[in-house]
Amino acid sequence: MSTVDGIGSSSVLDKYQVKQDSTQNKELGKDQFLNLLVAQLNNQNPLEPQGNGEFIAQLAQFSTVEGVEKLNSSMETILSGYQSSQALQASSLVGRKVIVPVDKAMVDTSESFKASAVLPTSSSNVYVNVYDSAGSVVSRINLGEQKAGNVSFIWDGKDSSGNVMKPGTYRFEAQATYGNETKGLYTLLPANVDSVTLGGNELMLNLAGVGNVPLSQVQVIGQ
């Protein structure tokens, strides 16, 4: 087998993959790989020249590595464009209302609060308990028998005695009755987008009275 400074021809790819410096943590680039390959050919033993098959295999390895580098570069460009588009979309939501799967919302009790609950199967009785910031039940919205799907409900902002509650953050607990069993339901509540947090793997919406919610959880975008 031909050698270059004591390194076998089969070691070129291994030499390519080793790190230049243990402190810098950088791999050899394609130019260094090509230089090693040329040096190997120039210094090979004329009595034991490198076989065509081995040479072609090393060229194929070099082409594969170069193709992977180009693919990585293309993917980075696509990802950067996607993130920019996503950031632009998210920034346009500031000041608007979105519907998200949460159980708390900032409520202006001077007007009706409209939301919905997700009912997986039909129920003989569906109701929603409304809690204030102290955790006390202030109202119950009875929806009666409902079919499977999104069940809309409206809270008029009043307690069980008919008194108008103060504006603030309220929690909504939806329940459904199945025979002798009662199960909780997911609620879809409206919230205003105060700001958008960029960075990380996903954009986060900062919602009034709710907190941070991933952009992917937005169900509906309002006006």
UniProtKB/TrEMBL annotation:
Pfam families: FlgD, FlgD_ig, FLgD_tudor. Keywords: Bacterial flagellum biogenesis, Cell projection, Cilium, Flagellum. Residues 85-219 form the FlgD Tudor-like domain. Residues 109-179 form the FlgD/Vpr Ig-like domain. It comes from the Bacteria. Required for flagellar hook formation. May act as a scaffolding protein. Belongs to the FlgD family. This is Basal-body rod modification protein FlgD. It comes from Phytopseudomonas seleniipraecipitans.
